[in-house]
Amino acid sequence: CYVNHSFAPNGLWHLGFIFAARDLAAGEELTVDYRHLLPEGEEEAFRDAESGRAIVGFSWAESLALSTRELASLQAA
To answer: Rounded CA gap, 38 and 20, in Å?
Structure first.
């Protein structure tokens, strides 16, 4: 019931669903890009642990376009 943030996630958030972006090992932590979950321009109180980059929400249009393209590429693989 927990999902963590990553700029290189193993899960894809799309319209409220999370899809595995690749095969996951048993017990592997599930990660998604929180920028899809935040309101446009809202910044998380913490930074990405790996890169130190700010986590700032995408606009609805940008989130939908990015996640739709990524989901289509997963389906084509």
So the answer is: 20
